[in-house]
Amino acid sequence: MRTTIRIDDDLYRRAKARAATEGRPVGELIADALRVALAPERDDSRQLPELPTYGGSGTLEGVDLSSNAGLHELMEADEPVDALR
User: Fold this and answer.
1) What share of the chain is helix, strand, coil (3-state, %, to 5)?
2) Residue 64 has what DSSP assignment?
3) What is the spatial distance between Cα 32 and Cα 34, in angstroms, rounded to a whole number?
4) Helices (H), 1-85
5) C-alpha–C-alpha distance, residues 58 and 60, integer Å
């Protein structure tokens, strides 16, 4: 459909430059922008699934969460983590 609309000069220049960069007509760019603007709003308020929790009493004995070097040593140890429990 053909129609006449009034667009701010600067906005039209930017749209024309973007359309040229993308190698398509200005009308196509404007139609795509309208599709995005008129699309139904997404429901971003969806509930996130609850994260699973596992029994236990906190960190492993001897683990200091404030020590990066200590955590690195523990992670690089040859002992399996299950053996540390």
Assistant:
1) 45, 0, 55
2) -
3) 5
4) 9-22, 26-38, 68-76, 81-84
5) 7
**Threshold 0.90, pTM exceeds:** no
Mean local confidence (pLDDT), 49-66: 79
74 CB burial (10 A radius; 0-12, 13-18, 19+):
middle
Q: How far is CA 6 from CA 9, 10, 52, 77, in A?
A: 9, 12, 55, 69
What's the sign of the alpha-carbon dihedral 11, 25, 30, 42? negative
Residue 67 has a pLDDT of: 87
Q: Which amino acid, 48?
A: L
The answer to whether residue 84 scores a pLDDT higher than 90 is no
Average pLDDT of the chain to the nearest whole number? 85
CA atoms within 13 A on the CB side of 64: 6
The confidence score (pLDDT) of residue 76 equals 83
